[in-house]
Design brief:
The protein is an all-alpha fold. The chain contains seven helices and two strands; from the N terminus they run ββααααααα.
Length: about 260
């Protein structure tokens, strides 16, 4: 069984034949992972704090994934150009070795970013929430400036290009660092171009209007109940906080209105 040197210099001995580098990296990262924080131990407190922290971690991860997606074609172009020049200067074997070393360094950089994200997640998130993580990743794409110009005044082609660009960013934000984000970006672009017109058309159909009316009717009792609870609880809450009741608040002095000329 061969020995394998990891990017940080650690040597793993007796690696079974047929084990891919991705599998080895995953097992190594898992073995080196920091134990997850236990939080406060109070469920009703840990859950919202974990959701918020998961959202923030997902946003940072999404920005990193977008940067990785944008950087991948640049790295590939630089590697190819450098390989051509070095092949002409020093021969193909030396150029191949340098290319492999360059790709390994780039992969190690991506692995370092993933380790940093995992550390933040295990340090600040006591109760993982994949939905909040994905929402943070997608939300990060809105922090990236989109195409300039107002979509209202743009033509249908320009609006389609703008939606495709935003969808590509959203798709690339959720791809895994170190992997190609082309497929995720393509799915995001296609969905962001096709879904808004489809949903708009559906909302104008009888079925869509009936569904909207049904949701509104079903939600009305809940909204009314919450409104009644707030109306009953507000006076007691104001008294507990030491705030004056609305009926006891002093009326400001207002001068009489001026007589019309």
């Amino acid at each position: 069984m061969p020995d394998v040197r990891m990017p940080d210099g650690t040597i793993i001995r007796n690696v079974p034949e047929g084990t891919t580098r991705a599998q080895l990296m995953a097992r190594f990262s898992k073995s080196q992972a920091k134990p997850r924080t236990g939080g406060s131990g109070i469920g009703w407190l840990d859950r919202p704090i974990s959701n918020f922290n998961e959202l923030v971690v997902g946003g940072l991860e999404g920005l990193g994934n977008i940067a990785d997606f944008v950087k991948q074609p640049f790295d590939a172009a630089v590697n190819k150009g450098t390989h051509v020049v070095e092949s002409a200067l020093w021969g193909r074997p030396q150029a191949d070795a340098n290319l492999a070393r360059s790709r390994q360094q780039q992969q190690a950089q991506r692995g370092g970013f993933k380790q940093a994200v995992d550390w933040a997640d295990r340090t600040f998130v006591a109760r993982p929430n994949p939905t909040a993580r994905t929402m943070g990743q997608i939300g990060a794409s809105f922090a990236v400036p989109g195409p300039a110009g107002k979509s209202e005044g743009a033509g249908i082609i320009a609006r389609g290009i703008g939606r495709a660009a935003q969808g590509a960013l959203q798709g690339s934000a959720v791809h895994k660092a170190g992997e190609s984000g082309a497929q995720s970006a393509g799915i995001g672009a296609a969905a962001n171009v096709a879904l808004p017109p489809a949903l708009r058309w559906l909302g104008n159909t009888r079925l869509g209007q009936a569904a909207g009316k049904a949701v509104s009717t079903a939600a009305r009792p809940v909204v009314n109940f919450l409104d009644d609870v707030a109306e009953v609880a507000a006076p007691g809450m104001r008294q507990r906080l030491g705030l004056p009741q609305l009926g006891n608040m002093p009326t400001p002095f207002l001068p009489p209105p001026a007589a019309p000329p």
